[in-house]
Amino acid sequence: MGKDSDKMYITHSEWATLDFGAGGFKNKKTGKDCALTLTPFDIPRCTRAGHIFDLLAIVPWIKKHGTNPVTGAPLSASDLIPLHFHKNKDGAYHDPITFKVFTDNTHIVACPSGHVFAWETIDELCVKPKSWRDLMTDEPFKRKDIITLQDPHNVSMQDINSFHYKVHEIARPLEEGEDAAAKKRREIAETINATGTTSRILAAMAPPSSTKKQPAAAAPITPSYVPKKQTSYNTAHFSDNTAAASFTSLGATAVTKNKSAVLSDTEYLVTTVKERASARIETSAGSLDVALFCDVAPRACYNFIQLAREGYYNGVSFHRVIRNFMAQTGDPTGTGRGGKSWFGYPFPDEFKNLSHDEQGILSMANKGPNTNNSQFFITFKQCKHLDGKHTIFGKVTTGIETLDNIESTLVDSSDKPKSPITVQKITILNDPFEKALNVLKGTDPTTLKKVQDAVDRKLRQEANDRIFAPKPATDVIGKYIKKDDDGDVVGEEDKKRSGGSCEDIYENAERRKKKKKSGNGEKMNFDFSSW
Predict the structure, then answer these.
(1) How much of the chain is in helix, strand and coil states, percent to nearest 5?
(2) Can you give the residue ranges of the PPIase cyclophilin-type domain (predicted)?
């Protein structure tokens, strides 16, 4: 081991002389106290050197001594700079930009305007970007104009024993006229208050106030199972970016929780529909039945369906026909440079595992990546070199002979048919987007029929229950015993023997004898008619 004289513990002399223990803080002023009264200030004023005073304490001192009580240098009332400290709802001083609360370890500075900030705020927003303007008033200032009020790395600014009036034992205005005992009590209170203990003790001993804020109610106990929060059908799986914007931009309102974005009906439909649509394109050369791949190219299909419903393609010509390649249409101007999507802006490409590998493929025409509008083309043969460049959204299912007629038409040098071929009408035969939208709005015929059938089944079941319900049973004992027309039990013994006649008693006795088994082996009489 080395023979270094440094100990691995704090020695007695270090405890006594250095700021390792509580004794090091007894004569330390905080950045929230007046340097003259050593109590929290009410009307703060500061000097260019960063010494903070209360206006009601420093003005009498200046009138009498005309010096700075901390340094002893000349000081006048005009040299004092008003300070503007900002408080939060709890009454604690904080930075007006970042809202961080000032502590005894915060580097606090002030601008010439008097607004007080944390040094890290000024450093990040003014010094590093070289934007020398006040963050609150937009007034220009220079680096040398920044006033340091509290620096945790420079404890000499807060050492009370080095203050001029302490070293030269100059009486402060509050000390004039007090006796030795009062002075001793005040010094003890100031020493204790330097650590913040006095205020806490007095606050605990103070009688309860009627205006004091009542303690908050106890937090509810969190159950072992918390049900998942219900969300609407169009809630996205990503956030609306308001929290990120408030974190990175000072101009945005502070938001601390992420909130899911809400999709429009169109955005929701193009992300949920997984069925295929069908349509009929009627041209001057014949009809084409096409299947639309809404499950792989929902935006292109939705754009085509909505434009067709509006009659956008009616009367639009095939402005470009190239044999053994394709026929292009969808431009109302007929020049190949026009056309607008239903969304109002070019929508992105949708490349899936589809290929221009046969005749009759419907694909979007574009001017480059993500520039799809209203123009589309139909292939005459396989064109695999277009894969990954154009969005495939459909296929011709019926009407190949119509394609052959379009391909065989004569064209000029610009590939424009000499005899115009136009799209007369496009009829949507099956629209899964409309079905999905009706389900969302509760107007889907299939859904309404299912609901009506369920109601009818319930009504029929209730009617059957009323018809075939068991009749109420009697509460008389022996309800299964046979009764006569008068409601009397057949064969019942005379319960009121005292009131019966002799003939009735004799007949009952004879009837009982017939039921007994004869002694000569004759069979018993199993006559149950009396039951």
Answers:
(1) 30, 20, 55
(2) 282-428
- The pTM (predicted TM-score) of the whole model is 0.42
Query: Per the residue annotation, which of 328, 359, 373, 375 is the catalytic one?
Result: 328
396: part of which helix (H) or strand (E)? Answer: strand 392-398
Residue 259 makes CB contacts below 8 A (sequence gap 6+) with: 239, 240, 242, 243
- Which domains occur in the chain, in start order? 22-195 (3.30.40.10), 277-430 (2.40.100.10), 474-531 (no CATH)
User: Is-catalytic flag, 325?
Assistant: yes
Our answer to whether residue 314 is catalytic in this structure is: no
Q: How many residues does the chain have?
A: 531
Q: What is the DSSP letter of 336?
A: S
Q: Which two tokens stand for residue 395?
A: 């296929």
Q: Are 194 and 26 spatial neighbours (Cβ–Cβ below 8 Å)?
A: yes
What is the Cα–Cα distance from 382 to 358, expressed in whole angstroms? 4
Closest to 265 in 3D by CA, of 276, 273, 277, 255: 273
User: How many Cβ atoms sit within 10 Å of the Cβ of residue 89?
Assistant: 5
Q: Are 42 and 54 in contact (CB under 8 A)?
A: yes
Please pick, among 53, 377, 380, 393, the residue that the annotation labels catalytic.
377
3-state secondary structure of 186: helix
Backbone angles phi, psi at 423, to 5 degrees: -90, 115
Q: State how far the alpha carbon of 207 is from the alpha carbons of 202, 203, 214, 225, 490, in Å.
A: 10, 9, 14, 43, 94
Q: Which two tokens stand for residue 370?
A: 């993500």
> Which residue in 55, 354, 386, 437 is the catalytic one?
386
Q: What is the pLDDT of residues 184-203, one digit of tens each?
A: 665 655 555 544 555 566 66
- Tokens at 242, concatenated: 């308001």
Relative to beta strand 86-87, strand 93-94 is antiparallel
Query: Which residue's entry shows tokens 């005009």?
Result: 78
3-class DSSP assignment, residue 316? strand
The active-site residue out of 366, 405, 430, 438 is 366
- Which structure tokens are listed for 473? 């049973």
| Contact criterion met (CB below 8 Å) for 391 and 294 | no
CB neighbours of residue 344 within 10 Å: 7
Catalytic (active site) residue 520: no
User: Is 343 tagged catalytic?
Assistant: no
Residue 94 appears among annotated catalytic residues: no
Cα 367 to its chain centre, rounded Å, is 38
Q: How far apart are CA 233 and CA 228, in angstroms?
A: 15
